[in-house]
Amino acid sequence: ALSLKDGIAIYDGLAVTVYRYDNSNLTIGESTPQFFNLQVDYAKDGSLYIHKEGTFGYQKFNNGSFEAEMVTSFRPKDVAENSNGTKAYFAGDNNGLWELDKSTDTWTNYTTSNSDLFQNALTSLCFDSADNLYMGNYQGIDKLDTAGTFTSCNDISPIPVFEISINPLNGDLLVRNSQPSSANIFGLSIVDFDSCTWTNYREDDTNCLNKDVYSACSYGGNGLAYVVPPYVSSIADIGSVYEFTVPTESCSEIDINYLNAPVAINANVITDFAIREKANGNLEMGFHRTNDLHMVEIDPTTFNGSLPNATTITPYPGNYVYSLLNDNNYFIVETNEGWIFIDENNVSTTFNHNIPDYLPIVTKKTTKYDSDNGIINIIHKGFDAAFNYRVYKTQCNTITGICSPSEEIFTNDRDLTQNILFGVEEDLNTNEVVAVGVKTNSSGNVKRTELRWSKSLNDMPLTLWDEDHPLYPLFDCIVVAASVSADDASIYIPDENTIQVRTEDPNSGNPVIIDNTLDVNDDGTLDVVKATGNAVITEGDVIGLAFIGFIEQSNEGFARIIKAIDQELNSNNQQRITTNVSGIDVNIKLPSNVFIPKFELILYNSTEALLAILTSYGLLIKTGVDVSQLTLSTEDTIVKNNEPLIYPNPSSNMVSFLGDTIASATIYDVNGRFIKDVKSSSFSVKDLAKGVYILKAKTNTGASISRKLIKN
Length: 712
Prior knowledge:
Blueprint: E1 2-3, E2 7-11, E3 16-20, E4 39-42, E5 48-51, E6 59-62, E7 65-66, E8 76-81, E9 87-92, E10 97-101, E11 106-110, E12 122-127, E13 133-137, E14 141-144, E15 150-153, E16 163-166, E17 173-178, E18 185-192, E19 197-201, E20 216-219, E21 225-228, E22 241-245, E23 250-254, E24 272-277, E25 283-289, E26 292-298, E27 311-313, E28 324-327, E29 330-334, E30 338-342, E31 348-352, E32 359-365, E33 375-383, E34 389-397, E35 402-403, E36 407-409, E37 421-427, E38 432-440, E39 446-454, E40 462-468, E41 478-481, E42 488-492, E43 498-504, E44 511-517, E45 528-539, E46 542-552, E47 558-563, E48 566-569, E49 575-578, E50 582-589, E51 598-603, E52 608-615, E53 618-626, E54 645-647, E55 654-658, E56 662-669, E57 674-678, E58 682-684, E59 691-699, E60 704-711
Antiparallel strand pairs: 1-2, 2-3, 4-5, 5-6, 6-7, 8-9, 9-10, 10-11, 12-13, 13-14, 14-15, 16-17, 17-18, 18-19, 20-21, 21-22, 22-23, 24-25, 25-26, 26-27, 28-29, 29-30, 30-31, 32-33, 33-34, 34-35, 34-36, 37-38, 38-39, 39-40, 41-42, 42-43, 43-44, 45-46, 46-47, 47-50, 48-49, 51-52, 52-53, 54-55, ...
């Protein structure tokens, strides 16, 4: 039995028969998103269990016919029967083990509350020859013996188990601790369950497998282990299978294409993507795989889901490309040697960082805005020759074609062998770059620290604070810098249900830590943070840098953009960062195990945006996302009683500052692009297209203010 996304295929030794939703009585999982293949497990009597990720129930296929669906109160992750086929066991995705007595058609549910089951979220099932049932979970393995006794075995540092296979010669367990295109990169393990001894194999140059991720593993009848690394290349390849001899820890690649099957020449794997705006108002999406950068141009106002043919270039022939950014109509491609800036005519300029033996991990701009005067501040993380984690800052000038020497940052009291997670943003009020990182110090303690340096001078960073942090967050930190005050906030995801915001008390300067949990559909179950990032939106009378994330609504899987940071007036009539949570639904249904490394929210008019989500299933694109719910009132907020307002607003003609205190002012669009300078306290907006703009000004006293300006 072979599983497909929209059906199954049965090979009887002579021919293959395909059964699909549209040509058979197969129905299970038909209404769920087609992100997953159906899953198939044979029963002892030769019938077939069919189930699908996210579906409540299963369907049987027997003697060429499909039986009616069996609806259950749980979503099966795996199915296994005991040796005589009298009982079937189902792994529930979040509610334990379900036992079906086939003779009486009765169910028994084992959970952590009524048994010694260690965890309710089960991932896989496997029987041994003595009818002991082994169950994988997100922290280890449970076992149910024939006497009905549960025992558990977890590694010293618990890691998830997604697949179990049993050595027929000695009973050892081969377990897969990794999932392709996910954050679970824990390799695989050999487990002696009786002594609860785990031997984990990862990419650490100490074993012949030397990989962090596998897509499948199984013992053969000869007691040898067979493991499959994921196929992630867009280069013609057939994939690979390795035979692993455990006692000697020796490996050999085996020939899996002895039938000379056709070789795959493409894949859905996308390493990174970025979006730039064209002069005609269209959006150009760039994405790359291995060596190539592919670019497609769309009109977001008419986009119907059909992508035009891509323009493909090879920025750095013979070498991989890594992170992809956009700035001022450039695509910025990261390589081992530095960055390649590609303008909208696809003319390339190379900037080398001159760091020897450097392997890139990620490059970030210091702001979501387009840079000023062609000067781009870049933060980049990578490995050195000894695989230490290094972080550098570099300033590049696209006009002169020169980059400053890369300067290492986050070096104070840090264990370089451990990863550092960081976020960065520019503070528009102080003209500084703000970088926050979570690190391991030389004593093995987890710390978080903030650095600041001049955006224009690119000078030596100053450490503002260095304090204890409870644990590594799940994602990179997020930095939000208020544009009308000296406030900034850093945001962390300590676990999948919590958004933690760190600010400072304005009087004492002491840190203020607030944890937020979300239940946006009010079903009593906390929702799951799937991704984080910054986006540029209009925030009342200022440009706001909002933290947004994808939230999996429990039992539904709908994506939701949420805003975890607001700016509002405090008791002193000054704008400050707060931790209110609001949001909008974007009506995208995502599978529960989706991995989202990046997303972009790009406004193309005053209320609508294009949302692009890089997932483990490909690139999702949605236009017409209404962001008006993420903005505050169109009325001006008085930041300080003596600061000037603009009137009338909205306006179609002349606008004036109320008060003669303005030294200079500039108008930007909602994406931060320069429109024009304002030379006097009264000015015309006749030449502006209808929409929302940002007016940034400085007073004669040197104070910076921002106002939302509406042209009607």
